TrEMBL record:
Residue spans of biased composition, Basic and acidic residues class: 332-342
Protein name, UniProt field: Thioredoxin domain-containing protein 6 isoform X2
Record-stated family: Belongs to the NDK family.
Taxonomy of the source species: Eukaryota, Metazoa, Chordata, Craniata, Vertebrata
Cleaved signal peptide residues: none
Length: 342
């Protein structure tokens, strides 16, 4: 209960124009997490905000969250595909950070806080900006009505896939490192949601593996603690997002990954099956199914290219027909079983 109170006190929820004006009048620097109603505030950055608050104190550093649909002033941020952090000082916008990029957020907080201290102490001129990046072309999500239904459907014009940072990686504190590597590899993180899966969800999610001996162990593991669910798109390169993500993950078995693709995520953060740190959709059809199950409000783009074939072969980092999920020293049947492990 004490932890919950701490989080509420840390980040003020701004839901009305009156509260917005009150927030702008705060002395010092205020960081506002502008979020969409369908995904909620960005939970992964709360630990960073707590750390910064403890380090610098509450006098000149404030944190707030605001749903874009609730405030007219945030109208141009509605339907955005990633969290947006607005930095205000003296009632003016001084910086913007897009995406849950913890290192960049921390760097920007420190820089803007020091700049505001100089403004307050020395009377220096405050550097005010306009968010020039906002334009209709930048919006990668659109809200559409579903045959007259009142519920909004969130859709992406980019080709997307599902990524999961599994409980074993989360519990060992590797989430931020993995997210940084994903971004460095040229992926756009459209959504990053921390969630503890239910047994019913995971049984449905892995229903195609229900007959395997490892099924119960896999379901138990995926429900054992919080995971991070990410929707990924590509920001650069010609390789489609599904194949690119599977290549970055590496072979499913961490032992094989360390031998064949030592720079892959599973080689670096996995230990043994099924504790292989990350999950990825097998192909575009699988991505549609998984996203529909875990993000019911997300409308998958019809423009996504086909990636790996529907069989048990895919193109890995070392060339075509490389088995991504099976060790070399087992027979073909064992390969097929290992291949299905994601």
């Amino acid at each position: 209960m004490g932890s919950k109170k701490k989080e509420i006190a840390l980040q003020v929820n701004v839901s009305t124009q009156e509260l917005w004006e009150e927030m702008l009048s705060s002395k010092g620097l205020t960081v506002v997490d502008v979020y969409q109603g369908w995904c909620g505030p960005c939970k992964p950055v709360v630990s960073l905000f707590q750390k910064m608050r403890v380090e610098v104190g509450p006098d000149l550093l404030h944190f707030a969250s605001a749903e874009a649909d609730c405030l007219d002033v945030l109208e141009r941020y509605r339907g955005k595909c990633e969290p947006t952090f607005l930095f205000y000082a003296g009632g003016e916008l001084v910086a913007v950070v897009r995406g849950a990029n913890a290192p960049l957020l921390e760097k920007t907080i420190r820089e803007q806080l020091e700049a505001e201290k100089r403004v307050l102490a020395e009377g220096r001129e405050r550097r005010v900006i306009k968010d020039e990046a906002l334009s209709d072309e930048d919006e990668c999500f659109s809200h559409e009505k579903n045959n007259g239904d009142d519920e909004d459907l969130v859709s992406s014009e980019k080709a997307c896939t599902l990524a999961i940072i599994k409980p074993d990686a989360v519990v060992h504190g590797k989430t931020d490192e993995i997210i940084m590597k994903i971004q460095e590899a040229g992926f756009d993180i459209l959504t990053n949601e921390e969630r503890t899966m239910t047994e019913a969800e995971m049984r449905l999610f892995y229903q195609h593996r229900a007959g395997e001996d490892t099924f119960e162990k896999l379901v138990h593991h995926m429900c054992s603690g919080p995971s991070h669910l990410l929707i990924l798109a590509r920001t650069e390169g010609t390789e489609d997002v599904v194949t690119a993500w599977r290549t970055l993950m590496g072979p499913c078995d961490p032992h094989v990954a360390r031998r064949e693709q030592p720079d892959s995520l599973r080689a670096q953060y996995g230990t043994e099956m099924p504790f292989n740190a990350v999950h990825g959709s097998w192909d575009s059809e699988d991505a549609r199914r998984e996203l529909a199950l875990l993000f019911p409000g997300f409308q998958f783009s019809d423009q996504i290219p086909e990636s790996a074939p529907l069989g048990h072969e895919a193109e890995g980092a070392e060339g075509p027909n490389k088995m991504l999920c099976s060790p070399e020293d087992v027979d073909e049947a064992a390969r097929d079983q290992g291949e299905a492990t994601s």
